[in-house]
Write a structure and sequence with these properties.
By secondary structure, this protein is of the alpha+beta class. The chain has helices at about 10-25, 35-50, 80-90, 140-160, 160-165, and strands at about 50-60, 60-70, 75-80, 95, 115-120, 125-135. It has one domain (about 10-165): GAF domain (Beta-Lactamase, 2-Layer Sandwich). β2 (about 60-70) and β3 form a beta hairpin. The mean pLDDT is about 95. The structure holds methionine sulfoxide.
Length: about 170
Amino acid sequence: MDIHFSIPGGSRDKQYEELIPQVEALLGGEHDLIANLSNITAALKYGMNFLWTGFYFVKGRELVLGPFQGTPACTRIPFGKGVCGTAWKEEQTIIVNDVDAFPGHIRCSSETRSEIVVPVFKKEKVFLVLDIDSSKSSDFGETDAHYLEKISGIIEAKISPEDTSKYG
Ligand code: SME
């Protein structure tokens, strides 16, 4: 399935405005969390042309790699470590304009220049994080945070009680 934009290469907020209904349609009536997260990573990578898109699940005191699109990544990140562990600890979206300037950044690809991590909550606790890497410096801003947090809300609505016991 392709992701369609009416204006290819249009502004990023217009791209998200067109992407989000397509993400909602992709999820449709599907309840399987892994299937839905997998399609979201593909929609974001190929729709927005990001370098790496993926999820990490909170499991005990670590994050563990979930569905992703891109080159292989580190599988486990401790609480509070790296950009992902910091977003989990601070329970908020973190934007890093220059990954080399972020203390403790965990490098998975030599091509990564900037990064955004958005937590997904369930019952007011971080359940997983969405991590996106870009090969361009300062590629993420408030527009990305705004729309990716919308996607986080869409995911949150799809997390079932079975998912929280299975993956948490
Ligand atoms: N850079 C992340 C690690 C995950 S990879 O980017 C896929 C971090 O510092 O947490």
